[in-house]
Amino acid sequence: MAMQLIDSHVHLNFDVFEPDLAAVRSRWQDAGVVHLVHSCVEPKEFAQIQALAAQFPELSFAVGLHPLDAEKWTPDTASEIVALAGSDSKVVALGEMGLDFYKADNEAQQRMVFEAQLAIASQLSLPVIIHCRDAAERMREILLAWKEREGEKARGVMHCWGGTPEETQWFLDLGFYISFSGTVTFKNAKQIHESAQIVKSDRLLIETDCPFLSPVPKRNQRRNEPAYVQYVAQAVAHLRGVTTEAIAAQTTQNACKLFGFSV
Q: Cβ neighbours of residue 209 under 8 Å, at least 6 residues apart?
């Protein structure tokens, strides 16, 4: 059987894909990408993403509010996310959500919005897709406090992971999956390379985060696309001393388990 890949984090609804999405899809199919998980930056994107999922049977998706949009949270946002998540069986996660102290410093607002979405995910028994940039320590504190308070760990993935090996271990210990993007192909990304070597096989995911972060050998292309997840798989395989086929099979199995779909 040909190699099967899952791109566990895409943003295909962005304008940059509008002119040639059919060709982009054709290329991901040729590359062996059998399933994709479409992330959500804010709930108003939902209808657009839902239409894409209706168009492409291999697309599942999430709903949530990104930390850099935390100021858009209103008293109605929680009930809106609950309603949207329940409105389509192709919703497999909440997110992306989390903390970003690289581009913003509204920590209290980000934390409130993140914890509100953790509660919704728990209520709906859905995993979370976590965006965490320059905020690993605070994220760990929140997730440990959550576990203490709720009596159960939050469940999900640290997406587009760029932390240190020590931080990687924190989130593995909390039960999270770790997803690597095109950054793992960058020559100088030593910490990410080390992290990719220590993640347990059954917790590993791969993604493009397209249209961002084109991997080597496509870095000169401004727009990343799902077909390029093959280069992420190759880089992770090289770092771990296994075949690309082994990484493809393991990450496909892991994505199916975390998000509850089959391919």
A: 9, 10, 11, 159, 160, 181, 182, 224
Contacts for 169-176: CB closer than 8 Å, 24+ residues apart = 169/198, 170/136, 170/140, 171/136, 171/139, 171/140, 171/143, 172/198, 172/199, 172/200, 172/203, 174/140, 174/143, 174/144, 174/147, 176/130, 176/203
Contact status, residue 45 vs residue 64, Cβ threshold 8 Å: no
Whether residue 71 is preceded by a cis peptide bond, meaning omega within 30 degrees of 0, is: no
pTM of structure: 0.97
Would the pLDDT of 23 be above 70? yes
Average pLDDT of the chain to the nearest whole number: 97
- What angle (nearest 5°) sits at the alpha carbon of residue 66, between those of residues 170 and 73? 120
pLDDT confidence of residue 2: 80
Task: Tell me how far apart the alpha carbons of residues 165 and 79 are, in angstroms, rounded to a whole number.
Answer: 37
Query: Rounded to an integer, what distance in angstroms lies between the CA atom of residue 116 and that of residue 97?
Result: 10
Q: Where are the alpha helices (DSSP H) in 155-202?
A: 165-173, 190-198
CA distance 95 to 120: 11
Q: Are 137 and 166 in contact (CB under 8 A)?
A: no
Q: How far apart are CA 58 and CA 52, in angstroms?
A: 10
* CA separation, residue 198 to residues 47, 195, 249, 256, 263 (Å): 38, 5, 18, 21, 27
pLDDT per position as a tens digit, 104-119: 989 999 999 999 999 9
pLDDT in tens, 131-189: 999 999 999 999 999 999 999 899 999 999 999 999 999 999 999 999 999 999 999 99
Q: Please give the single-letter amino acid code of residue 151.
A: G
